[in-house]
Amino acid sequence: MPPSPLIPHSRPTLGEEEARAAADAVRSGQIAQGPRVAAFEEAVARYAGRAGGAAVSSGTAALQLALLAMEVRPGDAVVVPSYNCPALVHAVRHLGARPRLCDVDPVTGNPTPETVGAAAEGARAVVVTHLFGAPAEAADIAALGVPAVEDLAQALGAARPEGPAGRSGLLSICSFYATKPLAAGEGGMVLGDKGALLGRVRDARAYDERDNLAPRWNYKLTDLQAAVGLVQLSRYEGFIARRRAIAARYAEGLAGTPLGLPQEPAGGRHIFHRYVVRLPEDRARQPGAGAVEEAARALEAKGITARRPVHLPLHRLLGETGFPGAEEAWARHLSLPIYPSLTEEEIERIMDAVCSLCRGWGHP
């Protein structure tokens, strides 16, 4: 009997509707930024509960231009959570500003009011990330008084009891990269309620037909990407419902293991962009190769692709120390496949493989 195919860690949920929308854009002759981009901006802003949006070429570009619109200047300090991808540091540095790292909650990987507050003195802005689809305490962080931009790249549609993620910051940003919950291949968007801020983003995303040489970039989204994005958005609540249903299956099937399972905030909504489990503390402290890598290799041998959700904490890349929450998250977090197109057979295979892994550790 041939071996079962490897289950990938990520898989975009694309179908005939997206294909037709892209083909229609091609047939229209308008494939650069045009009316579909404008429609996508309006639709995403409405979904996110913001007054407007400005589409750009990537999530990194969205963060850079959001900070620019918030008047971050060369030399300014911007608070960035250490447990995240390097794109945050690059966006800050593109403006000549200085990333100032803060620690995170070791369970969720999100910044907290306490960790941000410890780094916020004199900062010009703070980036509030909502990792893996779990909403951070953005309202309490914004209450610290430092202008905040919320990073919804992994959490568009998530919510806390006080309201949707992305509503507490001065601006919020999205990413539409292929592995994100709403996928258009590439792309990003800045969302907000103040027309002047969004106007600065729109001015800076293109440099043609301008009367001065203020810093600008070619950061436009195309109508091809927007066409796909519009279809994805029309299906998005169904995607979230499917992710949440799979997460519920995992929670039930893995309840007897020693793994720490992701929790939904009381009265809130986790959209489960990633299903990130925490390895037992005794496994994380084993000498030798990293426990996360060992677990991932063991699952791959069973046909399951699992990964570290963050390659390296930013403080390691910057040669800094003193981030125990980020260190613990990095040592214990393992991301399992979760996406709408997972089949029932694949879900069962994943749970069986993870339970088998735990039994191999001597756990029932």
Automatic annotation (TrEMBL):
Cross-referenced SUPFAM superfamilies: PLP-dependent transferases (SSF53383)
Modification N6-(pyridoxal phosphate)lysine occurs at: K180
GO biological process, one term: polysaccharide biosynthetic process
GO MF annotations in UniProt: pyridoxal phosphate binding; transaminase activity
Record key words, sorted: Aminotransferase, Pyridoxal phosphate, Transferase
Record flagged with keyword Aminoacyl-tRNA synthetase: no
KW DNA repair (keyword) present: no
Active site: K180 (proton acceptor)
Pfam families in the cross-refs: DegT_DnrJ_EryC1
The family this protein is said to belong to: Belongs to the DegT/DnrJ/EryC1 family.
Protein name (Swiss-Prot/TrEMBL): DegT/DnrJ/EryC1/StrS aminotransferase family protein
Organism annotation: Tectimicrobiota bacterium
